[in-house]
Amino acid sequence: MVYKKKIDQDMLVKSAFELLEREGAEALSMRRLATLLDVRASSLYNHFHEKSALLSAVAEKGLFLLAAELERVSALAKSDPRRQIYAMGMTYREWALQHPQLYRLLFTNTPPIEDTSSSSPIAAFAPILTATGKLVGQSQAASATQAVWAFVHGYVLLELTGHLQQCIPVEGFQLGLSCFVQGLGR
Protein backbone atom coordinates (compact mmCIF):
# COMPACT_ATOMS: atom_id res chain seq x y z
CA MET A 1 0.00 0.00 0.00
CA VAL A 2 1.34 3.44 -0.90
CA TYR A 3 0.83 6.26 1.60
CA LYS A 4 1.17 9.79 0.29
CA LYS A 5 -0.99 11.71 2.69
CA LYS A 6 0.71 14.52 4.60
CA ILE A 7 -0.17 14.89 8.24
CA ASP A 8 0.74 17.43 10.87
CA GLN A 9 0.38 17.73 14.65
CA ASP A 10 -2.89 19.66 14.45
CA MET A 11 -4.43 16.99 12.23
CA LEU A 12 -3.32 14.25 14.61
CA VAL A 13 -4.65 16.03 17.67
CA LYS A 14 -7.97 16.77 15.94
CA SER A 15 -8.38 13.15 14.82
CA ALA A 16 -7.35 11.76 18.21
CA PHE A 17 -9.74 14.20 19.90
CA GLU A 18 -12.64 13.06 17.71
CA LEU A 19 -11.83 9.37 18.21
CA LEU A 20 -11.61 9.86 21.97
CA GLU A 21 -14.97 11.65 22.03
CA ARG A 22 -16.63 8.91 19.98
CA GLU A 23 -15.12 5.79 21.50
CA GLY A 24 -13.11 6.63 24.61
CA ALA A 25 -9.45 6.44 25.57
CA GLU A 26 -9.35 2.65 25.31
CA ALA A 27 -10.08 2.83 21.58
CA LEU A 28 -7.36 5.37 20.93
CA SER A 29 -4.14 3.79 19.71
CA MET A 30 -1.47 5.03 17.35
CA ARG A 31 -2.24 2.16 14.97
CA ARG A 32 -5.98 2.89 14.99
CA LEU A 33 -5.34 6.58 14.42
CA ALA A 34 -2.98 5.82 11.54
CA THR A 35 -5.62 3.62 9.93
CA LEU A 36 -8.23 6.36 10.23
CA LEU A 37 -5.83 8.88 8.70
CA ASP A 38 -4.67 6.45 6.02
CA VAL A 39 -1.00 6.77 6.96
CA ARG A 40 1.64 4.45 8.39
CA ALA A 41 1.60 4.20 12.16
CA SER A 42 5.33 4.91 12.24
CA SER A 43 4.73 8.33 10.65
CA LEU A 44 2.75 9.42 13.72
CA TYR A 45 5.87 9.10 15.82
CA ASN A 46 7.47 11.88 13.80
CA HIS A 47 4.99 14.20 15.52
CA PHE A 48 4.49 12.55 18.92
CA HIS A 49 7.19 10.30 20.37
CA GLU A 50 4.60 8.19 22.22
CA LYS A 51 0.88 7.88 22.77
CA SER A 52 1.07 9.70 26.12
CA ALA A 53 2.45 12.80 24.36
CA LEU A 54 -0.50 12.74 21.96
CA LEU A 55 -2.93 12.31 24.86
CA SER A 56 -1.34 15.30 26.60
CA ALA A 57 -1.92 17.39 23.47
CA VAL A 58 -5.54 16.21 23.32
CA ALA A 59 -5.95 17.04 27.02
CA GLU A 60 -4.51 20.51 26.47
CA LYS A 61 -6.98 21.12 23.63
CA GLY A 62 -9.80 19.93 25.87
CA LEU A 63 -8.74 22.29 28.65
CA PHE A 64 -8.73 25.19 26.22
CA LEU A 65 -12.29 24.34 25.15
CA LEU A 66 -13.51 24.04 28.74
CA ALA A 67 -11.76 27.25 29.72
CA ALA A 68 -13.33 29.08 26.77
CA GLU A 69 -16.79 28.02 27.95
CA LEU A 70 -16.05 29.15 31.49
CA GLU A 71 -14.74 32.48 30.21
CA ARG A 72 -17.86 32.95 28.09
CA VAL A 73 -20.33 32.44 30.95
CA SER A 74 -18.15 34.38 33.35
CA ALA A 75 -18.42 37.43 31.10
CA LEU A 76 -22.23 37.20 31.13
CA ALA A 77 -22.47 37.63 34.90
CA LYS A 78 -19.43 39.81 35.58
CA SER A 79 -21.21 42.26 37.89
CA ASP A 80 -22.14 39.61 40.48
CA PRO A 81 -19.35 37.25 41.60
CA ARG A 82 -21.76 34.75 43.17
CA ARG A 83 -23.78 34.50 39.96
CA GLN A 84 -20.51 34.27 38.05
CA ILE A 85 -19.22 31.34 40.14
CA TYR A 86 -22.61 29.61 40.02
CA ALA A 87 -22.78 29.99 36.23
CA MET A 88 -19.25 28.66 35.81
CA GLY A 89 -20.04 25.70 38.08
CA MET A 90 -23.16 24.84 36.09
CA THR A 91 -21.25 25.21 32.82
CA TYR A 92 -18.46 22.98 34.10
CA ARG A 93 -20.98 20.24 34.92
CA GLU A 94 -22.80 20.56 31.59
CA TRP A 95 -19.51 20.49 29.67
CA ALA A 96 -18.34 17.39 31.55
CA LEU A 97 -21.62 15.57 30.85
CA GLN A 98 -21.44 16.52 27.15
CA HIS A 99 -17.79 15.38 26.91
CA PRO A 100 -17.48 12.49 29.38
CA GLN A 101 -14.59 10.75 27.63
CA LEU A 102 -12.59 13.95 27.34
CA TYR A 103 -13.43 14.91 30.92
CA ARG A 104 -12.13 11.56 32.17
CA LEU A 105 -8.94 12.04 30.19
CA LEU A 106 -8.48 15.54 31.59
CA PHE A 107 -9.10 14.82 35.23
CA THR A 108 -8.64 11.12 35.88
CA ASN A 109 -6.14 9.73 33.36
CA THR A 110 -3.38 12.29 32.90
CA PRO A 111 -1.21 14.36 35.21
CA PRO A 112 -2.14 18.04 35.40
CA ILE A 113 -0.68 20.41 32.86
CA GLU A 114 1.87 22.47 34.75
CA ASP A 115 2.40 25.31 32.27
CA THR A 116 1.36 28.52 34.01
CA SER A 117 2.21 30.98 31.23
CA SER A 118 -0.43 33.47 30.18
CA SER A 119 -1.22 31.32 27.13
CA SER A 120 -1.69 28.09 29.11
CA PRO A 121 -5.10 26.51 29.63
CA ILE A 122 -4.69 26.92 33.39
CA ALA A 123 -4.39 30.70 33.02
CA ALA A 124 -7.80 30.70 31.33
CA PHE A 125 -9.41 29.71 34.65
CA ALA A 126 -8.58 33.16 36.02
CA PRO A 127 -12.26 34.28 36.07
CA ILE A 128 -12.98 31.78 38.86
CA LEU A 129 -10.04 33.05 40.87
CA THR A 130 -11.07 36.67 40.28
CA ALA A 131 -14.69 36.04 41.28
CA THR A 132 -13.78 34.16 44.46
CA GLY A 133 -11.25 36.87 45.29
CA LYS A 134 -14.04 39.46 45.24
CA LEU A 135 -15.92 37.43 47.84
CA VAL A 136 -13.20 36.18 50.17
CA GLY A 137 -10.30 38.55 49.49
CA GLN A 138 -7.20 37.94 47.41
CA SER A 139 -5.32 36.24 50.26
CA GLN A 140 -7.88 33.40 50.30
CA ALA A 141 -8.87 33.40 46.63
CA ALA A 142 -6.72 30.41 45.63
CA SER A 143 -8.00 28.28 48.52
CA ALA A 144 -11.61 29.26 47.85
CA THR A 145 -11.19 28.48 44.15
CA GLN A 146 -9.80 25.04 44.99
CA ALA A 147 -12.71 24.40 47.34
CA VAL A 148 -15.27 25.36 44.69
CA TRP A 149 -13.52 23.19 42.11
CA ALA A 150 -13.29 20.24 44.54
CA PHE A 151 -17.06 20.35 45.12
CA VAL A 152 -17.94 20.75 41.43
CA HIS A 153 -15.44 18.16 40.22
CA GLY A 154 -16.32 15.65 42.92
CA TYR A 155 -20.03 15.91 42.24
CA VAL A 156 -19.55 15.63 38.48
CA LEU A 157 -17.29 12.59 38.85
CA LEU A 158 -19.84 10.89 41.12
CA GLU A 159 -22.52 11.63 38.54
CA LEU A 160 -20.45 10.34 35.61
CA THR A 161 -19.61 7.11 37.41
CA GLY A 162 -23.25 6.41 38.32
CA HIS A 163 -22.99 6.96 42.07
CA LEU A 164 -25.89 9.41 42.28
CA GLN A 165 -28.73 7.20 41.08
CA GLN A 166 -30.92 7.69 44.14
CA CYS A 167 -31.43 11.40 43.53
CA ILE A 168 -31.96 13.74 40.64
CA PRO A 169 -28.35 14.75 39.98
CA VAL A 170 -29.02 18.19 38.55
CA GLU A 171 -31.18 19.20 41.53
CA GLY A 172 -28.59 18.02 44.03
CA PHE A 173 -25.85 19.79 42.13
CA GLN A 174 -27.79 23.04 41.92
CA LEU A 175 -28.61 22.94 45.63
CA GLY A 176 -25.05 22.09 46.67
CA LEU A 177 -23.48 24.67 44.39
CA SER A 178 -25.93 27.35 45.51
CA CYS A 179 -25.23 26.66 49.20
CA PHE A 180 -21.50 26.59 48.57
CA VAL A 181 -21.45 29.83 46.59
CA GLN A 182 -23.74 31.65 49.04
CA GLY A 183 -21.39 30.69 51.87
CA LEU A 184 -18.32 32.24 50.25
CA GLY A 185 -17.20 35.38 52.01
CA ARG A 186 -19.77 35.19 54.79
From TrEMBL:
Keyword terms: DNA-binding, Transcription, Transcription regulation
Pfam families, sorted: TetR_C_33 (PF13305), TetR_N (PF00440)
Domain HTH tetR-type: 6-66
Provenance organism: Paenibacillus nasutitermitis
GO MF, one annotated term: DNA-binding transcription factor activity
Superkingdom to which the source organism belongs: Bacteria
Alphabetized InterPro entries for the sequence: Homeodomain-like_sf (IPR009057), HTH-type_TetR-like_transc_reg (IPR050109), HTH_TetR (IPR001647), MT1864/Rv1816-like_C (IPR025996), Tet_transcr_reg_TetR-rel_C_sf (IPR036271)
The name this protein goes by in its record: TetR family transcriptional regulator
Nucleus recorded as keyword: no
UniProt KW Nucleotidyltransferase keyword: no
DNA-binding interval(s): 29-48
